[in-house]
Amino acid sequence: MLSSNSGVQRMSQTALSRSRFLRLAAGALLPSIDLRLSAAAAPNPQLVQNSGAPGTEDAAAPGRMGAILVSHFGPVKIHSYLSPADGLQVNTQMIEGPNAVVIFDGQLLLTYADEVASYVQTLGKPVDRIILSHAHTDHWGGLQILTERFPDARVFALDGIADQVRVRGPARLDGLRRTYGDKAATKVTVPTETITEGLQRIDGVTYDFKRFVDAESDLQLAALLPEQKVLMAFDLVFSPNQHAFTGANHFDHWMIVLESLKALQGYDTITIGHDTPVDRSAIDSTMTYVKRAKAIHSVSADAKTYSENLKAAFPDLQQAGFVDLSASYLYAAPH
Ligand SMILES: [Zn+2]
To answer: 290 CA distance to ligand 1 centroid (A)?
Structure first.
């Protein structure tokens, strides 16, 4: 086992820099789903000044628009790239082992995927593989750049996710192109390799891959890193500071999934799909949110009502754009 105790202690201290990160990355939050690049494109000088907690560091670089938090676990490092608000504050996690890097998720926009790729290159190790956590566009939109810049890295996902990307991807990209122009991908990048559930060791890091259905998305990967005591939950768990995406209409089953994460042992820190890492209490806050959203959905006749009521129920949460987006999916005509 690696020196997990010190790693956990250090990782939990990421909480100390959360508020700073949030200020940095959420500085340009927009109230609508029509989030345009210009609003958040300016690099934030605070990033350069942010020294971070012991054991974690903010890998700031002049001109970089996203934020990067590095957590140390002996020979293993987790680098978390967080995009600015117009990129939906989505994370790309880079797990750096002794010899290689494993990348999880590919960003919404090409611009930010490009920052991820440039950062990975500074680590001086080959990209072993890229793993897609689920089929929502904000997690694969930028894979086009990552696969161009790391042509030897194969793209993995759970069985079923490639099909979802292949089927729904073109329409999603059309929508992205209308909003973001050439910051959005021109082609759909479909995973070609299947990742299976269970324990796997990749470059000295143990992953316990898990498959969940009918939660925030229809199909979602999670990974427990037992030696680091980290759960990579992606969009199963949301930040206590942000709205969650509820557009998949799986309120009841998502609660069951969250209960199972609560029952799961062996981790203290959760890396999530959006925003900086959280502790286990974020499972409870996500449950509170999902429960409330379900109740509001059951009494709201249309998207506008759902959206207004949910925002009123959680007036302090960021990423209100998720609410409008969720409402548009929940109340869309069946197709
Ligand atoms: Zn997401």
So the answer is: 15
Distance 134 CA to ligand 1 centre (A): 8
Which pTM does this prediction carry? 0.84
Taking the centre of ligand 1 as the mean of its atom positions, its distance from the CA of residue 113, in whole angstroms, is 15
- Please, where are the H alpha helices in the chain? 4-12, 18-25, 45-49, 110-122, 137-140, 143-149, 161-180, 251-263, 281-299, 303-313, 321-330
Nearest residue to 247 via CA among 307, 311, 160, 185: 307
How remote is the CA of residue 273 from the centroid of ligand 1, in Å? 5
260-291 pLDDT tens trace: 999 999 999 999 999 999 999 999 999 999 99
- What is the C-alpha separation between 79 and 278, in angstroms, rounded? 15
Using the mean position of ligand 1's atoms as its centre, give its distance from the Cα of residue 133 in Å.
9
Q: How far is CA 322 from CA 89, 242, 318, in A?
A: 11, 9, 9
Residue 205, beta-bridge partner list: 202
Instruction: Name the residues around ion ligand 1, CB cutoff 5 A.
Output: 138, 235, 273
Q: Write phi, then psi, for 320 (nearest 5 degrees).
A: -60, -20
